[in-house]
Amino acid sequence: MNDASFEAALARCAAAAADPQPDPVRALAAIVAWLRPAGDEPVAAASERLARLVEHLVAHDEAAAVLRRPLSLLLGRRRLVGFFAGSGILPPTGFFSELGRIIGHRLLPELPDEDDLRDALPRIFRRRDDWVWLQTLPRELSLRLWRELGRPAAARPEQVGPVRAQVLEALLVLAYRLGGVDAEQEFARLGDSFADSAPVFRAIAAEAQRFADGLQAHWSGGAVPEDERQLLVLVGQCRQVLARARRASMRSGTSLRLTYLLLRSEQSLERIETLARLLAAPLHPDRGQAALMACSGLMGSALAAENRRNSLRRHLGRGVELLALRVTDNAARTGEHYVADTPAALRGMWRAAMGAGAIIAVLALLKISASKLSLAPAGYALLYSLIYGLGFVLVYVLHLTIATKQSAMTAQTIANRLGELQPGRRLDLALVADLIVAVARTQVAAIVGNVVVALPTAVAISLLLGHLRGAPPLDVGKGAALLADLDPASLAPLYAAIAGVFLFLSGVLSGWFDNWTAYARVGARVERLRWLRALAGRAHAARAARYLEDHLGGLMGNFLFGCMLGSAGTVGLILGLPIDIRHIAFAAANLGHALVAFDFALPWTVVAWTALGVALIGAINLAVSFTLALIMALKARGLVFNQTRALLAAVWQRLRARPALLFIAAKQAGRDVDTQ
Question: In this structure, are residues 650 and 426 in contact, taking their beta carbons and an 8 Å threshold?
């Protein structure tokens, strides 16, 4: 590390702080510029530099004084309420209003308010990606830095007083903002689950005011006030109310606005707790270390959030996370039905997959026959979409299963189980491994069940039609085209990946419609349709309403998945891009139809090569849809899972010890996995 650059950074900081009109922003920017990794340096370089800075401050108190002066000027001369009450917390304006502000800032930058800390920070952290290395700084190093910078703070009450007064004001702003959260119309939709919440949220505002009055009186020379424990008790009660509201939203459906409000309220409660502990620390000398840790964590997360406050990518990504949080729990509950953990459930999966395989063989022939018509591209897209979409709806209504359709659902179930893991508890990790084995077993049953029926059924249908018509339904040219579509060396893997994306999207859409059905109370509204009552009678109208309420997500997810598959090729043709789809079940059926077209007179090498293509298509379908769904589920729950290697090892140990687990379920429910 360059000694000259380190000394130069300290010299620039000292010069800026010693100026007759000191500029603390310029002084601190010099230190941040030295800490920031250069373009070709790893992010870890920032941690190494911070370690050196801390050691230098510990050894040289005059260097620490150089940094303390601009920091105290920065905090003492600027408004801090917005920083402590808003940085790292979702803004009160809402998602779309904030999106408009960020876009407006990009087109016409806002005028900064130099008297506000939030507007001064971009001059210190000038790079938009400074948050990357800020988040990698070790917690213990940041803690030591703040300890050195704040060590003589008690000797300078004239500097500490304005800062703590604004921190207290930020606490009150957050508390009173939460005090009126129950007035939001979105919460009123939750009914009894949130009906008795008003006193709790009103109480936290009143207790925060009492806590603030006691501290202010103490700072003015009064007696030692009561500590923050009662305020923290109310914070815990508010968290319980929000948890109850979130569970209620899973049953009755949620909106983007409600999801936004719940998350923002949880963030506000966490910030109130941190600020309360920080303000009460001087009342309890034994809690100084805990308060310093809270301050260090708050500053780290708030600075990183401020650095990304005008990031369009971050804001849109957060919106996607909110949408994911809105729909993934519905998908997770659906995914539980796709895990066969008993012999009876596995037999049911085999039957469902085999029944779907027979229908797919018919759908594949219908699609091939439709391709012979003379239609405009839009006509082909519409006809193919109807064939696929209505066919998938039929499969769903008959309670059958299409291979790979489950992966986007079961990923949500796995994410739910990962969210229940507790550090150091091997039993929980073992349960997740059992769940993954059960999911893999279910996928194998679905894929094999589809393929072993779709292929021979396609052969049987083509032979029957050939016998009735005197010629196979497909000529040799069309058969050759179908085989070419399954060639592993062609674009088939890419098209299989596109189908995997559509599989993932269909799972998201199913969850969205399930949520919307519950939120909008579609069942009760359908039951009130006068024309439906007149046509079918009250009893049948009620049954139809209940069916829609329970199955609209599945119906729409399957139909829209069919529309995606049916229109992908036409969209690719219009855009001139390599866009098409390959799905393992249809690939197997197409192979069967092609074999009849060639009268089975194909070299075994061609058949083997094409069969390899079918297997590759299935593997890519599964991998893409499952991976996307799992990433979305983990992000929606805010999970960072770092035990992947241990989990894979646990799965491998089970399969190595009992390879039959991929094909045979345990005799007792819950022995391998408990999905409830």
Answer: no
In this structure, are residues 588 and 416 in contact, taking their beta carbons and an 8 Å threshold?
Answer: no
From the list 599, 616, 596, 613, the residue with the least C-alpha distance to 457 is 596
Residue 139 pLDDT level (bands cut at 50, 70, 90)? confident
Q: Which of 439, 404, 446 is nearest to 418 (CA)?
A: 439
CA-based nearest residue to 167, from 280, 34, 57, 309: 280
If pLDDT is split at 50, 70 and 90, which confidence band does 638 have? low
Residue spans of alpha helices (H) in 470-491: 476-485
User: What is the tens place of the pLDDT at every residue in 471-513?
Assistant: 888 889 998 999 999 999 999 999 999 998 998 888 778 877 8
> Do 399 and 555 touch, CB atoms closer than 8 A?
no
Cβ-Cβ contacts under 8 Å for 253 (sequence gap 6 or more): 515, 516, 517, 518, 519, 520
Q: If DSSP codes are grouped into helix, strand and coil, which group holds residue 401?
A: coil
Predicted model pTM: 0.69
Measure the CA–CA gap between 510 and 507, rounded to whole angstroms: 5
Quick check: 365 and 588 in contact, CB under 8 A? no
- Provide the CA 518 distance to its chain's centre, in angstroms: 21
Say whether 79 sits in a helix, a strand or coil: strand
Instruction: Give the integer Cα–Cα distance in Å for 248 and 444.
Output: 35
Cα 94–Cα 99–Cα 103 angle in degrees, nearest 5: 155
Q: Which two tokens stand for residue 133?
A: 């290395």
Report which residue type is found at 477: G
Residues belonging to the chain = 676
Query: CB-side exposure of 109: number of CA atoms within 13 Å?
Result: 6
Where on the phi/psi map is residue 376: left (φ > 0), alpha (ψ -120 to 50), or beta?
beta
Q: Which of 624, 658, 347 is nearest to 503 (CA)?
A: 624
Evaluate whether 339 touches 439 at the Cβ level (below 8 Å). Answer: yes
User: Of the candidates 340, 602, 371, 546, which has an alpha carbon nearest to the alpha carbon of residue 448?
Assistant: 340
CA 433 vs CA 351, 426, 661: distances in Å:
26, 11, 12
Sorted by sequence, the CB contacts under 8 Å of residue 660 that are 6+ apart come out as none
CA–centroid distance for 431 within its chain: 22
Taking residue 109's Cβ as centre, other Cβ atoms within 10 Å add up to 9
> What angle, 0 to 180 degrees and rounded to 10, lies between the N-to-C axes of helices 229-252 and 256-280?
170
Torsion angles phi and psi, residue 116, rounded to 5: -110, 135
* Contacting residues for 653 by C-beta, under 8 A, at least 6 apart: none
Between the alpha carbon of residue 501 and those of residues 460, 472, 508, 559, 567, the distances in Å are 32, 34, 11, 16, 14
Gap between the Cα atoms of 527 and 532, Å rounded: 8
